[in-house]
Structure formats: C-alpha cells, structure tokens
Write a structure and sequence with these properties.
It is a single chain. This protein is an all-alpha fold. Helix content is about 70%, strand content about 0%. The protein has two helices and no strands. Helix 1 crosses helix 2. The N and C termini lie far apart (about 40 Å).
Length: about 60
C-alpha cells in the first residue's frame, strides 16, 4: 500500500485532510455498492439488520 502521508514533517492541513477523507468515503461507497451487486442476498439481509437496529434505537 503506498504511503499517502507527505514526505516532509509539516502537519497536514484541514483541506488536505478533508480531501483525503472525501476520497476514502467515495471508495468506501463504491466498495459497498460492488459488494451489494455481487452478493444481493447478503446485502438484503444487511439492510434488514440495519433497519431493525434503527427501529429499536432509543434517543
């Protein structure tokens, strides 16, 4: 896995962190969509479990 940190010792700026986080979230959503396409039964079961968790959650 390539090292994504800057080579110098300067701290990461907030804009760089947000850009890196946005890329990570895009990749995560893409991976989930792919998994849902190739395993529809498991994806449906996961959606049902998530709905049940949300239904039984107390504020």
């Amino acid at each position: 896995m390539p090292d994504t940190q800057p080579s110098n010792d300067a701290p990461e700026t907030a804009a760089q962190r947000r850009a890196r986080r946005a890329q990570f979230l895009r990749d995560l959503m893409e991976a989930r969509a792919l998994r849902d396409r190739v395993q529809p039964r498991r994806a449906r079961a996961a959606r049902m479990r998530q709905q049940m968790r949300m239904r039984t959650f107390r504020w």
